[in-house]
Each structure stands twice: as C-alpha cells, then as structure tokens.
Amino acid sequence: MKKIILAFIVLIGISISCTKDFEDYNTDKKNPTAVPGEMLFSNAQKVLADQVASTNVNLNVWKLFAQYWTETTYTDESNYDIVNRTIADLTFRTYYRNCLADLAEAKKVITTPEPLNPADGVTQANKGFIIDLIMAYAYQRLVDTFGDIPYSEALDIDNITPVYDDAAGIYADLIDKTKAAVAGLDEAGGSFGSYDLYFNGDIAMWKKFGNSLLVKMGITIKNETVVVDAYAGAFAEGDICELVYIGGSNSNPLYQDLVQSGRKDFVPANTIVDLMNGLEDPRRPAYFTEAPGGGYVGGLYGESNAYANYSHIADPIQTPTFPITLLDFTEISFYLAEAAERGYGVGSAEEHYANAITSSFAYWGVDGAAEYIAAHAYNGLEGIGIQAYIAFYVRGFVGYTSYRRLNEPAMNMPPSPAESADEEVPRRFTYPINEQTLNTANRQAAVDKQWDGNDKLSGRIFWDK
Q1: Tell me, what DSSP letter sits at residue 267?
Q2: How many domains, in total, are found in the chain?
Q3: pLDDT, position 34
Q4: 103: which residues sit within 8 A by CB, 6+ positions away?
Q5: In sequence order, what are the beta bridge partners of 313?
Q6: 67 Ramachandran zone, left/alpha/beta (phi>0; psi -120 to 50)
Q7: What is the tens place of the pLDDT at every residue in 234-285?
Q8: How many helices and strands in the chain, by DSSP H and E?
Q9: How far is CA 242 from the centre of its chain?
Q10: Rounded to whole angstroms, how far apart are CA atoms 330 and 391?
Q11: What are the percentages of helix, strand and coil residues in the chain, rounded to 5?
Q12: Which DSSP letter does residue 82 get?
C-alpha cells in the first residue's frame, strides 16, 4: 500500500453569506463557529495517530507498560504510577474530547444535508461509514484500557454524568457497526480524498481495514464466527494503515518527545533486549543502537538507568517523518495464526506465523526472515506470543495487549510497583480521578460490577479473565 503523506491542514471553519443583512454584521468572522466536517475528520485522524505514537508520559505510557522502553531518571511510570501525572484523565480527554467528539461532529455535519444526486449520496454514506470504523477502533482501545466505559451516553455535551456501559456489550455493538460499515462501503463512490490521512479516500482499503478490525476484535474476545467471516477480506501482504508525518510542525510525536525535547528520558528495556539477544534476532539494529561497550544492552526495567551506559532507541525511529502504524498485515497475520491454533477455519497456523514474521522483517528493512523462521519454528501460542511481542515494538499498546492476552513473554517486575498493581504487571488503567469527583455514582457502579468495588491496575477486563 502506497504511503500517504500527511497534508498540512489548518483546522478552521468558514462562514459564507451571500447577503449583507443585519445578522451578517453581528457575525464574528475572525472566530467562525462552523467547521467543515472533512477538517474535523482529518483532525481526529491526526489526534488518534499522535496518541498511538506518543511516548509523552503524560499521555501514553504503553511502551513502558509493554517493557519495550524504560526510564532513566524519573521512573514513576515504569513503576506503574499513573496517578501522579493524572495519565488516565488525559487519556480520557484525548480520546473523548479531541478524537471521538470531532468524529461524531464530523459525521453529523457531513451526513445531515440532503444529497444533491445519487452519486453525492453514495459519497456521503461512504464518509459516514469510514467515520464509524475509526470510532470503533478508538472505542476498542478505550475498552481495552479501562473495561466498562461511557459509550451509549458519551459525547453528549449536555450530559456530564454518562453511564458506564458493559464492556462486552460495547464490543458486540462495535462489531455490529463495523460489519455494517464494511457492508455499506461502496467502491463505486467517493469519500474524503486528500482529507483522509490514512488511505487518501481509498474505499477498498477502508473495507480491508474494517475486516481487519473485525479480526482484531474477534480474536480478542475469542469469537470464532467474527474472525472466520472477516479474515478473507482483511489486509493482505504489504497492506498497512499508517500516518506518515512530513516533519516540521507535523513531526512524529516520538521525534518531539525524544529529540526536540532535548531530554534523555528513555532507553530500551532489558525485557525486550535480552529476549531478542537470546534469539539472535536480526531486527535488533533496526530497534536499538549498540551500547558503548558493544552489543545490545537494555536498561533495568523500572530502575534508574544512566542514559550513556545503555543501548538507545534506533535513530530512524527518532526522525520527524517516522510513520506510525495503526493496523497492518503483520498484526492480522499473528491473530490468524492464533485463530488457526485455536481451531478456527482460517487456514494454516504455521503459514500465518511465517507471514507475520516475514512481514515484520520487511517493514523494518531487515533480511533473513526465512532463516529466522527456520531457527524459531512455529510452536503454538507461546511462540506466537513471543514473536508478536517482538514484532509490535514501538506500538506499545498493541504489544501490551498481546502480553495480556497470551501471557508472553515473561515480564520483569519493577522495584517499586504502584500499590494498586498488587505486585503484578498491570492489566488495565484505573479510572480517571475526575470521574471519581464528577461522575461518582456511575463510575462506582462500573467498579462494583467488575471488581467488587476495587478500582485497581490489577483488575482484569472481561476478555482477560
């Protein structure tokens, strides 16, 4: 799939009037209120991609929770403290206010007008379905982060105390909406064109994305029917949903966090470095630099680590234009390998496993996939878990979720884990502190139903039990 370059889009609204009446003189043209739906859509796409990419400890600690990276001086987040910086609150805000609210408004603006002709009607419908797919992707991440979340009453500006919907019920509704979107997308019609920062308006790719999302949701909840019905239409070799940054003010957040900040806060964690060293993994030079004394050496997870003593994050990952992957053939192939291992009718587990590793090597520009696969032959869910974890490097939440689902590889415990982790690698985020104050009853009802009144990092989401 050809990479789509992020266009520089300024999010403004344009008010147009053909008459100079009294109302016209009472309109502040410097602060317009109407924002075109296409711009809202683009903005939401970028917000979502930025959140997936970021390693800012105020917004995204998944690369730390996955033990891909660890901290050098300030180690709170590597020890599972998400309260000090109110990370859960900022996560809620990013998804609900900055992404999902824009998507909902974009859909309202785009689909409300009566289409002028049948062709416009198809394009209008396609845009609505694409928005549904991105919303499903975002909501799934929220469920997989917290458990029960506001859903049916979310995004209503007049309701500041939305109920928390059942996580399993949300999954069921997301699957239904994703199926409807895939079925409804019409390749004969148009869509967002250049306003679409992921696929440049390619309807065929959005259908593949939708089917891939169904595979992802289906394997997460171990629903064979969902996976089997969708996998044939999912991503094929080389397919990827990503945002490629253009640099400057539109640089990858990793560049902003790792380079522009001037800080040296992160080094690769010994968890992944030691694992890859033991497998003599050829992807190490694409992931890490060598340590000053030679070889690849990861910082001790959760400990204070002198930046100069360890391997660093590979230079290409820190460039302004490094792309962020939201979903790709590599990820789907690992899910299909797992599905086949569980007996679903999706083909050969060994073939999907080989496809996944080969795709990962290709993405990182590394040779030797066939030899590596021969040396580390398929061995069931354990091998899938280990190889998926390695392949998902940089994609912290995906790697962390893979660990939660397959319990591979073995993780290290930091020296001072947060009390609510119960001496375990966390299984979720605790709910935002603001929710305890502003939406007390609904938040408490969700906690009581799921974890007997204890809102802890160690609480397991419904599919993790």
Answers
A1: E
A2: 1
A3: 72
A4: 40, 41, 44, 131, 134, 135, 138
A5: 288
A6: left
A7: 999 999 999 999 999 899 999 999 999 999 999 999 999 999 999 999 999 9
A8: 19, 6
A9: 11
A10: 8
A11: 50, 5, 40
A12: -
Average pLDDT value for residue range 211-239: 98
Domain that holds residue 149: 38-464
Q: Which domain CATH number covers 368?
A: 1.25.40.390
Q: Are the beta carbons of 286 and 316 closer than 8 angstroms? A: yes
Confirm whether 261 is domain-assigned.
Answer: yes
What type of residue is 362? Answer: A
Distance CA 104, CA 131 (A): 8
Closest C-alpha to 409, from 425, 430, 428: 425
* Tokens (6 digits) for 271: 């968890």
CB neighbour list of residue 152: distance below 8 Å, 6 or more residues apart: 162, 163, 165
Structure tokens, 112:
């409300």
3-state class (DSSP) for residue 71: strand
Tokens at 170, concatenated: 């949300």
Nearest-angstrom CA–CA distance, 316 and 253: 13
Taking the alpha carbons of 8, 191, 128, 174 in that order, is the dihedral positive or negative? Answer: negative
Enter the DSSP assignment of 70: E
